[in-house]
Q: What sequence folds into this?
C-alpha cells in the first residue's frame, strides 16, 4: 500500500493525483472510524468495569480473592449464601422494597395531582410554587438528616419504616411534580375537554383520559422514585438502626480498612444493585428521559 | 378560567396536598434545624434539657474556632468544581462520540445507566475494593506497568481517588444529558459549516455548544449542586479520612454530629450547607427561567 502510494506521488500526473487524494481520504476516514470505536470501547469499559469486577469478586472463593489477576477460577455462590445467612440481607432487601414501593405510590398520587394542577390551571402563584418545589429538591440530604433525627426522637418514630417513607417524600414528590408536569402539558387539552363535555367530572377526566395517556411517563417517574428510595443512604443510615435497616446501609458493615470480607461485601453489593440495574437497562429509553429531564426540555 | 371570586380556586385541590406535605417534610425540618442550632445540647442528651446559646455556634464556626470548617469548605470547593468540570469535559467527549449512527447504541447507553443509577454506598464499596492497596485490581495493573503500587486511599491520594469515583458517576449523567441535547440541535447550520470545510472541533465549539449553551449551563449548575449532595460513596470509602483529607461539608456534619456528638454545632453546619446549596439553586432558577423564555420564543 505504502509503496504504491509513494510511487504515485513520485509520478505526479493529474489522474494519479486524484486517485491518491481519494485513497488518502478513504484511509483517513477508516482510521478516524477505528479511533472512534476504540474511544467508545474505552468509555464502555470505564463505565462497566467497576461493577463487572465486583460481580467477578463475589463469585471467588477466599483464596482466589488475594490474587486480583486471576481471571479464570471455579465460581462459587458461597459468598451469596453467607451474605444471606449472616448479614440478614434478605430482611434488609424486604425493608427496602416496602419503603420504596409505599414511597413511590404516595409520591405518584400526590405529585401527579399537583403536576396536573400546575399544567392545567392558571393562578397567581403558579410559577412561584413550581420554582419553590424545585428549590426544596436541591436541599442537601445532610442538611435534613439532623432535624429528621431530632424530630424522629421527639415523636418516637426512629427505626421504623414510616420515618423513612416520610423522609423520602421530599425528593420523590418534587421529582414527580417536575416530571409529570411536562408529560401532562404534552397531552392536548382538547382530548380532555371532549371528556368534560361528555359529562365527566374533572377528576373523572383525569383518571380516564389523562392518566392513560401519561402512563409511560408516569411509569418512568415511578421507576426513578423507586430507585431513589431503594438507593437512599444518609437518611437510612441515621434514622434506622436494626429493625428498619435498608440494604444500602449494610455497606457500613464493610468499612474497616483491614479484614474486610471482600467476597461477602461484593455479594451484598451485587444483590443490592442488580434489581435496579436490570430494570433500568431494560427500560432504558424511559430512564434516560427521566435522568435528563429538567435539563433537556425539548427532548419530547 | 373559572375562578369566581369567593369560591376556592379549583387548582388548590390538586396542588394543595403536595404543597402541604412538602412544607411538612422540607420547610419544617430546615426551620427546626435553624431553631435547634441556637441551643446547646449533645447527641444522647434529652431535647428538653437544651440551653439557649443564640448564635454562638455560628460565631464558633465562622470565626475559625472550629478548625475543620474552613478546611472542609476548601475541600468541598475543590471536589465539587473538579467533579463538575472534568465530568463535563469527559461527558462532552462521550456525547460527541455518540452523536452519530451506531450499531451498539443501546449497549453504550446501558453502560452509561450503570454509574448513574447504582446505589451510591455500593459504588463506594466497589471502588474501595478496586483501590485496595494489596488486593485491588488497580494496583495489580500499576504494579505490572510501573513496578510499584499506589496508596490510593492514603493521605496524599484520597481526595483525588474519591473525586475520581464521583467523576465516574457524573460523567455518565453528563454524557446522557449532552447527547440528548446534541440530538436536538438542528442539522442545517452544521451541514452548512461542513460544506464550508469546518473541522469537527470548530463545529462543536462554534455552532453546537453555542446553540445548547443554556442546556450546558443548567447541566453544570445541577451537577454542581448534586456534587454538594455526595455522601454515601465517601463514607463507605474513607469516612472523610484519612485525617480530614476527604472531609467534605456533608461528612463534616456527620462527623461533628454523630462522632464528636456535637449535634447542636452539626445543626448549624447543616444550615450553612443548606444556604450554600440555596445560592446555587438561585443561579439555577435564573438560568432555567432564561432557557424557558428562549425556548418559548422559538
A:
Amino acid at each position: 500500500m505504502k509503496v504504491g502510494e509513494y510511487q504515485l506521488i513520485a509520478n505526479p500526473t493529474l489522474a494519479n493525483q486524484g486517485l491518491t487524494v481519494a485513497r488518502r481520504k478513504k484511509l483517513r476516514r477508516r482510521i478516524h472510524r477505528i479511533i472512534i470505536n476504540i474511544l467508545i470501547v474505552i468509555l464502555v469499559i470505564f463505565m462497566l468495569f467497576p461493577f463487572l469486577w465486583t460481580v467477578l469478586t463475589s463469585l471467588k472463593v477466599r483464596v482466589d480473592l488475594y490474587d486480583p489477576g486471576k481471571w479464570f477460577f471455579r465460581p462459587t455462590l458461597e459468598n451469596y449464601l453467607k451474605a444471606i445467612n449472616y448479614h440478614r440481607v434478605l430482611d434488609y432487601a424486604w425493608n427496602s422494597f416496602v419503603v420504596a414501593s409505599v414511597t413511590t405510590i404516595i409520591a405518584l398520587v400526590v405529585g401527579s395531582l399537583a403536576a396536573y394542577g400546575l399544567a392545567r390551571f392558571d393562578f397567581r402563584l403558579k410559577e412561584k410554587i413550581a420554582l419553590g418545589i424545585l428549590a426544596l429538591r436541591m436541599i442537601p440530604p445532610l442538611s435534613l438528616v439532623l432535624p429528621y433525627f431530632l424530630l424522629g426522637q421527639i415523636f418516637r418514630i426512629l427505626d421504623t419504616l414510616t420515618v423513612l417513607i416520610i423522609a423520602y417524600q421530599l425528593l420523590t414528590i418534587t421529582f414527580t411534580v417536575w416530571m409529570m408536569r411536562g408529560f401532562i402539558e404534552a397531552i392536548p387539552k382538547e382530548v380532555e375537554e371532549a371528556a368534560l363535555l361528555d359529562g365527566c367530572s374533572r377528576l373523572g377526566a383525569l383518571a380516564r383520559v389523562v392518566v392513560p395517556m401519561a402512563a409511560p411517563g408516569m411509569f418512568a417517574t415511578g421507576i426513578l422514585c423507586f430507585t431513589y428510595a431503594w438507593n437512599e443512604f444518609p437518611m437510612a443510615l441515621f434514622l434506622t438502626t436494626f429493625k428498619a435497616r435498608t440494604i444500602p446501609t449494610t455497606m457500613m458493615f464493610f468499612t474497616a480498612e483491614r479484614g474486610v470480607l471482600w467476597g461477602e461485601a461484593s455479594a451484598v453489593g451485587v444483590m443490592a444493585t442488580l434489581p435496579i440495574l436490570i430494570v433500568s437497562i431494560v427500560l432504558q429509553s424511559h430512564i434516560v428521559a427521566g435522568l435528563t429531564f429538567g435539563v433537556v426540555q425539548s427532548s419530547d | 378560567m373559572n375562578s369566581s371570586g369567593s369560591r376556592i380556586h379549583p387548582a388548590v385541590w390538586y396542588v394543595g396536598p403536595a404543597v402541604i406535605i412538602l412544607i411538612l417534610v422540607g420547610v419544617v425540618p430546615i426551620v427546626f434545624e435553624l431553631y435547634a442550632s441556637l441551643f446547646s445540647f449533645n447527641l444522647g442528651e434529652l431535647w428538653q434539657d437544651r440551653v439557649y446559646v443564640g448564635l454562638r455556634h455560628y460565631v464558633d464556626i465562622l470565626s475559625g474556632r472550629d478548625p475543620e470548617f474552613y478546611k472542609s469548605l476548601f475541600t468541598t470547593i475543590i471536589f465539587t468544581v473538579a467533579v463538575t468540570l472534568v465530568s463535563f469535559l469527559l461527558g462532552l467527549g462521550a456525547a460527541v462520540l455518540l452523536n452519530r449512527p451506531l450499531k451498539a447504541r443501546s449497549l453504550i447507553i446501558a453502560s452509561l445507566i450503570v454509574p448513574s443509577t447504582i446505589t451510591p454506598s455500593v459504588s463506594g464499596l466497589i471502588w474501595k475494593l478496586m483501590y485496595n492497596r494489596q488486593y485491588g485490581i488497580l494496583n495489580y495493573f500499576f504494579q505490572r506497568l510501573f513496578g510499584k503500587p499506589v496508596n490510593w486511599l492514603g493521605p496524599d491520594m484520597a481526595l483525588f481517588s474519591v473525586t475520581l469515583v464521583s467523576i465516574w458517576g457524573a460523567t455518565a449523567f453528563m454524557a446522557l444529558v449532552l447527547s440528548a441535547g446534541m440530538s436536538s440541535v438542528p442539522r442545517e447550520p452544521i451541514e452548512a459549516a461542513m460544506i464550508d470545510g469546518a473541522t469537527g472541533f470548530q463545529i462543536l465549539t462554534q455552532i453546537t455548544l453555542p446553540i445548547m449553551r443554556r442546556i450546558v449551563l443548567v447541566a453544570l449548575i445541577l451537577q454542581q449542586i448534586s456534587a454538594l449532595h455526595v455522601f454515601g460513596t465517601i463514607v463507605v470509602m474513607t469516612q472523610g479520612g484519612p485525617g480530614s483529607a476527604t472531609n467534605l461539608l456533608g461528612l463534616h456534619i456527620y462527623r461533628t454530629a454523630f462522632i464528636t456528638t456535637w449535634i447542636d454545632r452539626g445543626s448549624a453546619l447543616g444550615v450553612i450547607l443548606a444556604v450554600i446549596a440555596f445560592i446555587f439553586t438561585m443561579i439555577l432558577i435564573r438560568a432555567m427561567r432564561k432557557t424557558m423564555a428562549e425556548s418559548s420564543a422559538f
